[in-house]
Design a protein that fits this description.
The chain has two domains: 88 residues; 239 residues, BirA Bifunctional Protein, domain 2 (2-Layer Sandwich). A seven-stranded mixed β-sheet has the order 1-4-5-9-8-7-6, sandwiched between helices. The protein has a two-stranded antiparallel ribbon with strand order 2-3.
């Protein structure tokens, strides 16, 4: 009896003295665990006489019950104390103003693309879209690009594996031919979208880039209409003081064709006629002009292929690279910056 009473006293005092759940678990293992003194005493009951075994077993069970009840009560107290301590440590002061979350914004390329599109919507154009995986008929044939043209080789064009004559569109011009085959003139559309070329990635080239093309087909459309439209576009993008010039060029789907330059706004020396000062300009290389896009009058063969009489209707088309405009306007030297998802770069614009 003395040993059992002493064991009970020690166990209850140890449980009451615990201050953490870990200490309480240690006390449980020590006093009621499988290797505890109490467990050993219960296993030794088989060596006693029946009457003594019965009396001794009741005493040991009473001790176990008392210790286990004390453990449960202490566990409840310590768990509540731990919860209160955690709530105090993690308490939020709701009277403080919230953290300032910087507002999001469209990607720089999206901003420039929307500016270009908005400029043409203001001129009465509508937006047209088409698939990025395009048939060779729309991407090449209807655009006066013959089967043996170099651009149709795999060195320049990305073909979709498993599909005959299906490519990732090399320009957004297929949307123009889709519009012309579905809609009778007058037609005035602007076509934004991603295009794909088999280019090697470097500072100025990417196999995926963004293009915006425009198309106007009606009666009595001339190069004068094209020049006026492009002048309006360049002034909307680069400033009201800008001028443009058209240089002869060649594209299979326009005739005549032109490369369009915008006057350099990075060096006043070029506009003053100061050749020495202009030569220092890294943007225009001293010429005073920056090549910005390609354009021209829609080739009569394209109109005929789309079911439009070139004797009655004429039109112009142009294409501008969104990345190039964004690089020129914002001083971006490497086209890869647009696609690296670097938050430090994106936050600048």
């Amino acid at each position: 009896m003395t040993d059992i009473d002493e064991l009970r006293r020690q166990a209850l005092e140890a449980v009451e003295a615990t201050t953490t759940l870990d200490e309480l678990d240690e006390a449980r293992v020590r006093y009621v665990g499988r290797r505890s003194e109490l467990a050993l005493a219960q296993r030794g009951l088989g060596d006693l006489d029946p009457e003594e075994r019965k009396e001794r077993g009741k005493q040991l069970n009473a001790v176990r019950g008392a210790v286990e009840q004390a453990l449960e009560e202490r566990r409840s107290v310590l768990a509540q104390a731990a919860l209160e301590a955690r709530l105090a440590d993690e308490r939020l002061d709701l009277t403080l103003p919230p953290r300032r979350v910087p507002p999001g914004r469209p990607h720089l390329l999206t901003q420039v693309e929307e500016e270009i599109v908005d400029a043409f919507i203001g001129l009465g154009y509508r937006v047209a879209e088409g698939p990025e995986a395009e048939s060779g008929a729309y991407n090449f044939d209807l655009l006066n690009i013959p089967p043996d043209h170099p651009t149709r080789t795999e060195m320049d064009t990305i073909y979709v594996e498993g599909y005959e004559d299906v490519v990732l569109r090399t320009h957004t011009s297929p949307v123009q031919t889709r519009v012309l085959t579905d809609q009778a003139p007058p037609v005035a559309v602007v076509v934004p979208g991603r295009v794909y070329r088999a280019d090697t990635v470097d500072a100025t080239h990417s196999p995926v880039f963004t293009q915006v093309e425009g198309l106007l087909v009606d009666t009595d459309i001339t190069m004068a209409h094209l020049r006026g439209t492009l002048l309006e576009l360049c002034r909307a993008l680069f400033g009201a003081e800008r001028e443009i010039r058209l240089r002869p060029s060649f594209f299979p789907f326009t005739e005549p064709s032109a490369e369009v330059d915008v006057s350099c706004g990075f060096c006043d020396a070029a506009q003053r006629g100061d050749a020495a000062g202009a030569a220092d300009c890294r943007v225009c290389s001293g010429t005073g002009w920056i090549e910005i896009l390609g354009a021209g009058m829609v080739d009569p063969n394209v109109l005929s292929a789309c079911g439009i009489d070139p004797e009655v209707h004429s039109g112009f088309a142009f294409g501008i690279g969104v990345e190039r405009v964004a690089m020129l306007r914002n001083g971006v030297a490497d086209i890869r910056d647009f696609f690296d998802a670097d938050a430090r770069f994106l936050a600048r614009f």
